[in-house]
Amino acid sequence: KSAEQGYKEAQAIHAIQCAIGEGVEKNSDEAFKWARLAAEQESPLGHAVVADFFSCGFGTATNFALARLHYEKAEKLGIKDLNVNIGNIWLFGKGVTPNEEEALHWYQQGADKGDPSSFGALAGCYASKHLKCYDQDKSVFWAKAGASRNDPKCRYLLGFFHSAGMGRSEEHTS
């Protein structure tokens, strides 16, 4: 009822309910409609949900350029864990020309906010030999930083790096 009365956060929550069929019939078109209404009112959650829907083509055509714009709006409005989503769009060239530096910028912003998934993204980038930023020391540093925050991806990466003989004997700095 609150969604129908125009409350933006209720609209965003109703969009999620429509997407997963919680308390209402599962309907991707309705989900997108409600998320869009919330985003039009500058709901941070509304923007994040619209971005997710654009990313996966749920209730609308896949459009990574619009997904990125909505992720960025949601992030500016206070949703803190979207930097990895934005960075991935840049890294993998989804709707944009691939840009490693831009991806690293977004991952770093997330890490600066303490988002553990951003630590994992940085560790993964620095561990990728096919990227220009390849740097084993930085990769181990970011894996350790994320592992210390109990991020499962970082704990896995750190274990993998150690089994490969990386990062065992010296301290690493960013």
Characterize the structure shown.
- With 174 residues, the protein is mainly α.
- 64% of the residues lie in helices and 0% in strands.
- The chain contains nine helices and no strands.
- It has helices at residues 8-20, 28-40, 44-56, 64-76, 83-92, 100-112, 116-127, 136-147, 152-163.
- Helix 1 runs antiparallel to helix 2 (28-40).
- The radius of gyration is 19 Å and the shape is elongated.
Biggest beta sheet attributes: none
Distance between the termini: 50 Å
**Average pLDDT reading:** 91
Estimate percent helicity: 55-70%
Q: Estimate what percentage of residues fall within beta strands.
A: under 5%
Strand and helix layout:
Elements: H1 8-20, H2 28-40, H3 44-56, H4 64-76, H5 83-92, H6 100-112, H7 116-127, H8 136-147, H9 152-163
Helix pairs in contact: 1-2, 1-3, 2-3, 3-4, 4-5, 5-6, 6-7, 7-8, 8-9
Considering the chains and any ligands shown, give keywords for the structure.
mainly alpha; 64% helix; elongated
Brief characterization of the structure:
The protein has 174 residues and is mostly helical. The chain is 64% helix and 0% strand. Helix 4 (64-76) runs antiparallel to helix 5.
